[in-house]
Design brief:
There is one protein chain. With about 160 residues, the chain is α+β, with helices and mostly antiparallel strands. It has a domain at about 5-95: Ribosomal protein S6/Translation elongation factor EF1B (Alpha-Beta Plaits), CATH 3.30.70. It has 5 helices and 4 strands. A 4-stranded antiparallel beta sheet has the order 2-3-1-4, with helices on one face. A hairpin with a 2-residue loop joins strand 2 and strand 3. This is Ribosomal protein S6.
């Protein structure tokens, strides 16, 4: 799947507009078979010029960015949803790459190093070890909560089989 970046300007109004907007966009991507790689809150700023959106003029906006993988056929639906959302002043989706490089998981290298994944490990080995990590109730609850919100059925935790 190609790698995309969504950059949007939301209405200035604090977290009341931004959090639900980012959550809805991320869940839309996930529900349509995409993978969210990162979400960045770029803070509220003065707009470079006055923008008219949804019958109003705006001079301030809250910038957000989401990097994700998705099928190219799903991008027009996401753009349409953002265009109709009254919380969004402007939004654009840019294709960053045709696909992620081999061996890239989308997780920061510092995180993978901290979790004990040397760079020499293959992507498959990293994924197998990542699936075995959730063992505490707090981690499992957080993972299941996101899966339920995304409309997915939570998977049972992965347990390692004793080697004979």
């Amino acid at each position: 799947m190609p790698l995309y970046e969504l950059v949007a300007i939301a209405r200035a109004g604090g977290e009341t507009y931004v959090k639900p907007l980012v959550k809805q966009a991320a869940l839309t991507i996930i529900n349509r078979g995409g993978v969210v790689r990162s979400m960045n809150n770029l803070e509220a700023r003065e707009l470079p010029y006055r923008i008219k959106a949804h019958q109003e003029y705006h001079q301030q906006g809250h910038y957000v960015s989401i990097v994700f993988d998705s099928a190219p056929t799903e991008i027009p639906a996401l753009q349409r949803q953002l265009r109709l959302d009254t919380r969004v002043l402007r939004a654009t989706v840019v294709k960053l790459a045709d696909q992620l490089d081999r061996g890239v998981s989308g997780l920061p290298e510092a995180y993978l190093d901290a979790m004990g994944f040397p760079k020499a490990h293959s992507q498959k080995a990293r994924n197998v070890r990542l699936q075995a990590i959730p063992s505490t109730p707090a981690v499992l609850a957080a993972a299941n909560e996101w899966q339920v919100e995304a409309g997915k059925v939570p998977l049972p935790p992965v347990t390692e089989k004793p080697q004979a």
